[in-house]
Design a protein that fits this description.
By secondary structure, the protein is an alpha/beta fold. 37% of the residues lie in helices and 16% in strands. The chain has a 7-stranded mixed β-sheet with strand order 7-15-14-11-10-8-9, sandwiched between helices. It has a 4-stranded antiparallel β-sheet with strand order 16-18-20-19. Strands 1-2-3 form a 3-stranded mixed β-sheet.
């Protein structure tokens, strides 16, 4: 064998059986293995398809692998230039063994090395450059400038909320909402267990106490029954998080809030464009927050937005956002505030991105439809939720692996990466992480969030993904699953 671990994972000796070849292919997750003789020289290749066809034709796994190997294969010298290697790739040839002068494979060129499919990347080919250039040309690059006001007005109108404040990122958007509503020390805020840490961190930043609730198995979002159970005399607010693009059970949560006179702060960082019963997320609560980080549905690089229903609360937030400085008396600070402002340059990008929001959301939904169709035939995959009352924005396409899939989520992620496909796990439950364990109540269990987190995987979900790339993602899933299923059966 060679001294290259990557190529070693692809090699099988010519004296072995079809079963041996299948074991190598299952391990390397590449759908192929290279057959070498006793001297290490390459003598053939075998794909997972070759093995399936052989079994269908009546061969057994105990037969010699030389019975099914392909002797007419594509290989190149290890000294071959990149251009020559690239031109040899086809839809059928995705792995090219690179040989030394003795014909021994010492490396392997493959399409996953040449091109990695990212989980998320922004699309910035609209008016972004034009608007940023205008900022540069006029000199309005900081937090003063026309694009900030324009972005706020257009965003607030889009989300059907009367007051919109652009801020420096999605995390401070939540903190600003809590501070402006007067949530602070001695107050409790109910937050879902399955969410990004910013949701709970901002509660702690406001000096309030987070109360962690399990999520609903059908939507993966805050479970209204759990919320009702966790309310105490100290409860001040509920924080629904519209997770991965799917809306929360807003009617039930708003009814609970009205019954107990609680604030509702919607965390919409992952759900811009999603609808609950035809209404945009972010239009239900007392405040709503959005993130425009580089992986969000629209981006400003960093950045966020806080929406308010009450004009007095919005006015307080405006002062807090700008160091607590009096709006009529410059450099006079009437309260301890923050520097949470968005720059005009960021807002310029945001305006350009917002112009294409419908296009981006539709692209996400088209992507989800392709994944749903492709994954529905794979045993053990639970597709992402979309309740009949919901319009999922599919920020990240996330699915759940069951026992019948045949492998754990983390093993699948590692094998997908070998095929040039980036994936992500679902968020860790808050209750498992060190900073938040103290907020777990005695006897409290989080069965749904724990199960989802351990088995959930997010696939590449960029609006920039091509049909060919998405098919490559699905092909990798099919090949990995099919090879494991075949290997496990024998």
């Amino acid at each position: 064998m060679s001294h290259n671990p990557e190529i070693d994972d692809l090699l099988v000796r010519d004296g072995g059986t079809i079963r041996d070849a299948l074991a190598v292919i299952d391990h390397n997750a590449q759908g192929i293995c290279f057959v070498v003789d006793g001297g290490g020289k390459l003598v053939g290749v075998i794909t997972d398809g070759d093995i399936r066809r052989a079994l269908i034709a009546g061969r057994t796994l105990q037969q010699p692998l030389t019975d099914v190997m392909e002797r007419n294969f594509t290989a190149l010298p290890v000294t071959a230039p990149a251009e020559r290697i690239q031109e040899k790739f086809t839809s059928a040839v995705r792995h090219i063994p690179l040989l030394d002068e003795r014909g021994v494979p010492v490396d392997c060129a493959n399409l996953s090395r040449a091109h990695r499919i990212q989980v998320m990347s922004p699309q910035l080919d609209g008016n972004e450059l034009n608007y940023v250039t205008e900022c540069m040309r006029t000199g309005w690059i900081s937090s003063q400038g026309a694009f900030v006001k324009k972005f706020e007005a257009q965003f607030g109108e889009r989300c059907a909320m009367p007051h919109a404040l652009a801020v420096s990122n999605g995390t401070v958007a939540i903190h600003l909402a809590l501070e402006a509503l007067g949530v602070g020390e001695g107050d409790e805020v109910i937050v879902p267990d399955l969410t990004f840490a910013a949701s709970i961190n901002t509660i702690l930043h406001a000096r309030a106490t987070p109360v962690i609730a399990d999520v609903h198995p059908d939507t993966w979002t805050l479970d209204p029954a759990e919320v009702e159970r966790l309310i105490t005399p100290r409860t001040k607010a509920i924080m629904p998080v519209h997770l991965y693009g799917h809306p929360c059970h807003m009617d039930e949560l708003m009814a609970i809030a009205r019954k107990h006179k609680l604030f509702v702060v919607e965390d919409c960082a992952e759900a811009l464009g999603a609808l609950y019963k035809g209404k945009p997320v972010g239009s239900f609560g007392d405040a709503a927050t959005f993130s425009f980080f580089g992986n969000k549905t629209i981006t400003t690089g960093e950045g966020g937005m806080t929406l308010f229903r009450d004009p007095a609360v919005a006015e307080r937030a405006i002062v807090l956002r700008d160091h607590g400085m009096d709006k009529q008396k410059r450099y006079w600070h009437q309260m301890v505030g923050y520097n949470y402002r968005m720059t005009n340059v960021q807002a310029a990008i945001g305006v350009a991105q917002l112009e294409r929001l419908d296009e981006f959301v539709q692209a996400k939904r088209n992507l989800a439809a392709v994944y749903n169709a492709g994954l529905a035939a794979i045993a053990g995959v639970t597709l992402p939720p979309e309740e009949e009352w919901a319009f999922n924005g599919f920020w990240l396409y996330s699915c759940i692996l069951g026992e019948s899939f045949g492998m754990q989520r983390d093993e699948l992620m590692e094998k997908m990466m070998r095929n040039g496909v980036e994936t992500r796990p679902l968020f860790y439950p808050l209750h498992e992480m060190p900073p938040y364990r103290e907020f777990v109540l005695p006897g409290q269990r989080f069965e749904v969030s724990t199960r989802l987190s351990q088995a959930g995987i997010s696939l590449p979900s960029s609006v920039t993904i091509t049909a060919a790339e998405q098919e490559s993602v699905l092909n990798a899933m099919r090949s990995i699953h099919g090879t494991r299923k075949l290997h496990a059966a024998v």
